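Hi support team,

I submitted a single chain yesterday and got back a structure, but I'm not sure I'm reading the token output correctly. Could someone confirm the output below corresponds to the sequence I sent? I've pasted both exactly as they appear in my results page.

Thanks,
R.
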Amino acid sequence: MATEGEYESILCVKPDINVYRIPPRASNRGYRAADWKLEQPDWKGRMRVTARGKVAFIKLEDKSSGIPFKKLFGAPVDQYPGIAVETVSDSSRYFVIRIQDGNGRSAFIGIGFSDRGDAFDFNVALQDHFKWVKQENEISKEVQNQNAGPKLDLGFKEGQTITLNIGV
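Hi R., thanks for writing in. Yes, this is the structure output for that exact sequence:
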């Protein structure tokens, strides 16, 4: 998770997002947007995708006031693809996200974009963030491996001398 002192960066802002109550997932076929009431979203607003450290957050807000959707809930994303954000099997414009409250309870809701380009931007923002996370982890491992390896001692030992011949 994020540590104190890490700043929050904005990965993506989309002004039009639809939220849907969704039926449980069919065990073998995943989520399908066609099973939702697409003409009747349960809520409309805007979406901001932010990152703090290695965790991304999906924030659904009222378009004009910025008040969060379901004030008690948030949608932290610690890996993508993963359980926190899933694509649906029948459309590139709809996703299922897991929202959580502070007590560890979670629920799954559907989100949808009216514009395919907005859905693409959302997808790419998450992919790029977790590509960066992977690179950071690899760099950190390399630094640890370098520090763990044997040290090359190029210093002079006691009593050792060196002679330099400089032609004049």
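A quick pointer for reading it: The longest helix spans residues 116-148. Let us know if anything else looks off.

Best,
Support desk
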